[in-house]
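Data card: per-record layout.
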Amino acid sequence: MKKFLFLALLLVASAYANAQDVQMTIVEGIQNTKVKSRMEKGISALLSEINRACAQERDLDLDNIDMALSGKHSLNALWKNLHFLCEDNQIVERCLTSAEGYVIRNIYTQVNPMVEGYADEPERALTIRLTKDGQIASLAMAASDAVYGRIMEEGLSVTDLERRTTILSFVENYRSFYDEKDLDAIDRIFSDDAIIITGTVPLQKTVNSDNKSWREQIKYKVQTKPQYMSSLQNTFDKNEYIKVTFSDVEVVRHPANPNYYGVTLHQHWKSSRYEDDGYLLLIWEFHDGQDPIIHYRTWQPDRIGSKKIGKDEIINIMDFNIPSLE
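The structure for this 326-residue chain is written out next.
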């Protein structure tokens, strides 16, 4: 009995030893020392709590973390599917500016999926977004460095770079929205009059003389925002988990109206009931001092039968009537 208790105490001690505290230091990108101090303190506390919860295999305790309530809800929902551990106890990073506030990237973690069938890379980076006064707004799994480079490399001005940072934040958050089944977050980013277009590939049996063949053709379904949200709620209810990943991200600013951006992503969707690949297009509108909003969302399969569709066949922002800038 004494031997068993000793081993149990060793296991507990080991868990606490692995749950090392994390110290965050921001080296550049922000001049306001008060906001900078709040950011460093908040991120250090958050990452330390994540490490403790992961090592002890328990739920997160975010009550005393300087984080927006919506961010806490999202992180708790993500934690149900995915635990992660920050191995570095000293993190030194620069701060980026976005339309909403600030962004800290490149916080690398070891991940541990908590749902059977939910596979993920063994190492993922975190992105932490903060408000302009330094409070943590949200945490999400980061896009790859290659995706980040493609989005940012064509920035033409400070405003354009900030908007591209906002788009990148969305790309990273969008994955989390599905991990968390956060219908409210998805609802907020679409305009009330948003149009949702979804392509499918039905198989139609045709007869040519005595030979039977299958003709494949993409057919498109147009939905309003309420119809789309209702369908998405049904999808969330039916699936134990949903994992969405992106590659081949392209951001195009409309030539006639620089407030509109088309974001094209190659999307891989995997859930407990279904899996597919296709191209997602989101058309954003930006206004200074307001949250950006999505007016159009389209999805189309990336192949018809065995034929992969060409780049010129992918729906893009130029296929829509975007109002000219007055």
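Known properties of this structure: The chain has seven helices and 17 strands. Residues 1-17, 203-216 have pLDDT under 50 and may be disordered.

See the next section for split statistics.
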